[in-house]
Specification:
Largest sheet: 7 strands, mixed
CATH class of the domain at 3-127: Alpha Beta
Pfam family, one: Acetyltransf_8
Distance between the termini: 26 Å
Strand order of the largest sheet: 1-2-3-4-5-7-6
Shape: globular
CATH superfamily of the domain at 3-127: Gcn5-related N-acetyltransferase (GNAT)
Order of helices and strands: EHHHEEEHEHEEH
CATH topology of the domain at 3-127: Aminopeptidase
Number of strands: 7
Protein name: GNAT family N-acetyltransferase
Organism: Leucothrix pacifica
Helix content: 25-40%
Strand content: 25-35%
GO molecular function, one term: N-acyltransferase activity
CATH architecture of the domain at 3-127: 3-Layer(aba) Sandwich
Radius of gyration: 16 Å
Domain N-acetyltransferase: 3-168
Number of helices: 6
Length: 179
């Protein structure tokens, strides 16, 4: 089976709404595990620009997951704050279909997204913010080289751990894998 990652389009809104209602996705986006992401996917997908993009991962043509990559300094919601340095990226990732969890597709998706971010020479680091109670996500990001930075409350339902991956650490890890 071949994993393919492509730019998300308006036609992907239905699958994103469907995934939002999956119990494992709700568990990853809200501390109580019952709240959906509540995105207006048509608006989100239509507003992609230099500050924000959505990607869809497909396995043999079937969507299995999604990723969002943002420039936290310029994206309109200022989720990460108003004083974020311009040389960072932030991302979210989710596998929408339960059958594809635990098969390495998330690691492939993250590797793709990390490389995409670091293809931009000015990007120094990537931020990610899994929920503080999501131990599986913490282990996953640490395996990829992300380092814990702080615990942070982004809003009333987002008690998160912030992790950071510096370019140098990723390059060192990538070089070791190639050796």
């Amino acid at each position: 089976m071949s994993l393919h990652i492509r730019q998300a389009v308006l036609g992907d809104a239905d699958i994103l709404y469907y995934w939002d209602e999956k119990p494992h996705v709700k568990k990853a986006v809200s501390n109580d595990g019952t709240t959906s992401f509540e995105a207006d996917w048509e608006d989100e997908l239509a507003s992609q620009d230099d500050s924000m993009e959505f990607l869809i991962a497909e396995l043999d043509g079937n969507p299995i997951g999604a990723m969002q990559i943002i420039n936290p300094a310029t994206e309109p919601s200022h989720y990460w704050g108003h004083d974020v340095p311009p040389n960072l990226r932030a991302m979210d990732i989710w596998i929408g279909e339960e059958a594809y969890l635990g098969h390495g597709y998330g690691a492939q998706m993250m590797t793709f997204a990390i490389n995409r971010c670091f293809d931009e020479a000015e990007v120094e680091a990537i931020l990610i913010d899994p929920l503080a109670n999501n131990q599986d996500a913490h282990r996953f990001y640490k395996r990829l080289g992300f380092v814990f930075v702080e615990q942070r409350q982004f809003d009333e339902d987002s008690d998160c751990f912030v992790f950071r991956l510096n370019r140098e650490a990723w390059e060192l890890r990538s070089n070791k894998l190639l050796a």
